[in-house]
Design goal:
The protein is of the alpha/beta class. It is 30% helix and 21% strand. Strands 1, 2, 3, 4, 5, 6, 7, 8, 9 and 10 form a ten-stranded mixed sheet that branches. α3 packs across α4 and α9 runs parallel beside α10. The longest helix has 18 residues. The radius of gyration is 21 Å and the shape is globular.
């Protein structure tokens, strides 16, 4: 697929970078910027920033289309990392005549990047673009674990058109379906109806309240470690830390907390796409929100730089195996802990009685799950996944 006909380069000159010696260390001086005179050689890059200024299906946030370049203006003024990064800014995608045309173009481009082992960092735009991100995996015929960091579930009604606050049902009902699992991190109960919360439970979709996550932020890591795709709705951050969104509330993640959450996404060896959505520059005060988003991006890339590649399990000698007998379980519950990183996994059996097949699913977990099993209890994480995989 040729990318250049569908991309508008970002004009680096508008940043007006200084000529001082220290300016050579800015991110803008350390990455490559796409030019319309070239077709990017994707073999040269690991990460690609791509803007999608689409907001025609936004719910009361049409100015989200202004977000990509505003985010860039803050991000590229930050200092780079000590380790060189193979990253390109591909500019903004040319919007389609209809929103559906944009979805299809975005999914084609993202699928092309993912197939070439380049992780797209999507600067939206409205949150319904997460649906286009999912379609990329469908086109690649790859099953995908999706994590949405969002204060709302955005389920929507299957009989109504897609919107930024109503797209999840489109992913769930898409046929053929390649969604293996969906997790929401950071929802606020009072922003979601009891019917929506109950539906998420009935569908075996994982949900984690913002208060639960803030109590111990390290528990976010195994949730994100299981994802190929992560989407961030900036409304999940509390309004005092990110005023540039019409739908956030007084509560939510703090700025430094959301940076840590997304750093976990960068560290995730499995993750192959990441998007940030719903930033409205017209509501921003003194570039507060665009600066925070630029810091989020910085931490994502730092996480990527520090990936340890311990999720493949090609050599089990690199892990410590723990088997725990739990009275409620027929078999022992097995854990693996990486010698390299100290990260944990729990084995969930997938049983096909008709074919007499038993497979192992390596589910990311935390040391707390092991400690729970040692107290003769089956971890909730294990139960939920077992029911989902064997239902």
């Amino acid at each position: 697929m040729l990318l250049s006909p569908y991309l508008i380069p970002f004009d680096l000159e508008e940043l007006k970078l200084p000529d001082s010696l220290s300016a050579n260390s800015l991110i803008a001086r350390r990455i490559h910027f796409f030019s319309s005179e070239e077709e990017p050689d994707l073999s040269m890059y690991d990460l690609a920033i791509i803007g999608v200024p689409e907001s025609r299906n936004a719910f009361e946030n049409s100015a989200a289309s202004l977000a990509p370049d505003e985010i860039r203006r803050q991000f590229y003024k930050l200092y780079s990392w000590n380790t060189p990064v193979r990253m390109i800014d591909l500019g903004n995608i040319v919007l389609g005549a209809t929103v559906e045309d944009t979805y299809h173009l975005v999914s084609d481009i993202l699928a092309h990047l993912i197939a070439n082992n380049v992780i797209p960092i999507i600067l939206g735009g409205s949150n319904d673009l997460a649906y286009a991100n999912y379609l990329a995996y469908k086109k690649l015929e790859q099953v995908v674990n999706v994590v949405a960091v969002d204060s709302r579930f955005d389920i929507g009604n299957e009989n109504l058109p897609i919107a930024s606050n109503a797209y999840l049902n489109k992913i769930i009902l898409e046929e053929p379906n390649y969604l293996l699992n969906y997790s929401n991190i950071g929802y606020q109960t009072y922003l979601n109806s009891p019917e929506e919360i109950d539906l998420m439970s009935k569908l075996f979709l994982d949900t984690y309240r913002v208060g639960m996550m803030r109590g111990d932020l390290t528990e976010v890591e195994p949730i994100i470690r299981n994802a190929e795709m992560v989407s961030l709705d900036i409304s999940v951050v509390r309004r005092p830390d990110a005023c540039g969104n019409p739908h956030n509330s007084a509560n939510g993640f703090y700025g430094e907390e959301i940076c840590q959450v997304i750093r976990y996404a960068g560290l995730n060896d499995k993750l192959t796409s990441f998007g940030i959505y719903e930033y409205d520059p017209t509501l921003d005060y003194s570039n507060q929100t665009s600066q925070l988003i630029s810091h989020i991006l910085w931490y994502f890339v730092e996480g990527f730089i520090n990936r340890q590649n311990d999720c493949s399990f090609k050599d089990l000698k690199q892990y410590v195996k723990y088997s725990v007998a739990v009275s409620e379980a027929v078999d022992e519950i097995v854990f693996y802990c990486s010698k390299k990183t100290g990260r944990w996994w729990i084995i969930v059996p997938i049983i096909n009685i008709k074919k007499n097949i038993k497979q192992k699913y390596f589910l990311p977990c935390s040391k707390k799950d092991y400690e729970i099993a040692c107290k003769d209890k089956i971890p909730e994480r294990w139960w939920k996944t077992y029911n989902k995989l064997n239902n």
